[in-house]
Write a structure and sequence with these properties.
The protein has 195 residues and is α+β, with helices and mostly antiparallel strands. It contains 2 helices and 7 strands, in the order H-H-E-E-E-E-E-E-E. It has one domain. The strands form 2 sheets. Strands 1, 4, 5, 6 and 7 form a 5-stranded mixed β-sheet that branches. Strands 2-3 form a two-stranded antiparallel ribbon. The mean pLDDT is 87. InterPro entries: N_methyl_site (IPR012902), T2SS_protein-GspI (IPR010052).
Length: 195
Amino acid sequence: MRYSKGFTIIELLVAMLILLFVMLGFLAGLLNYMRFSLDARMKGAMDKLVKDWSGYLENVPYNATAIANASPSFDSGACDPTTNQCSFESIDSDGDGIPDFYDPYNGNNNNFWNNPTSTAPWLWVSPTSSAGLPNPPPTNYTVAERRQVYVGITVATLTQSGKEIGKAFGITSWYFSPTNRQYKYESTLLIKRKP
């Protein structure tokens, strides 16, 4: 038998296996990058929803019908300006660590990833209802196919000595992470003083 130049079948198989592992590693990295990029876009949309709704509610006059008639989701509350805490921010009826005033779900929020519009009854504005507000911002954004960011708003009446002095709006935006389906949210408190 004569020796001829070239590669043996074993050498070719080893080279193909090495190339396959390199390609699989590159593909896994690319898929992770795409998931984290989508997660970042969803977080950006979540920030935008909170800012849009905060700006919108700040600009709607207090005596506008939709604001004046907003039925409070929570009993009358009081806010302490020295601690920046409001009485309704301590209620957590479902025990998930998120005050109900900022919680769009009644139960463990991570369990709602497959039915995200099944929100709690205490929301004044929900992903499916803008509470009759005139020309409101959207209540959800579609970031990618089957990937949405939602907003929900709760209302509490602020009282002092038994008289209404304003309304507090709990604005919460959320989504379920494309990487692990975990509930992620951002909340803010907006207080409108009665004129």
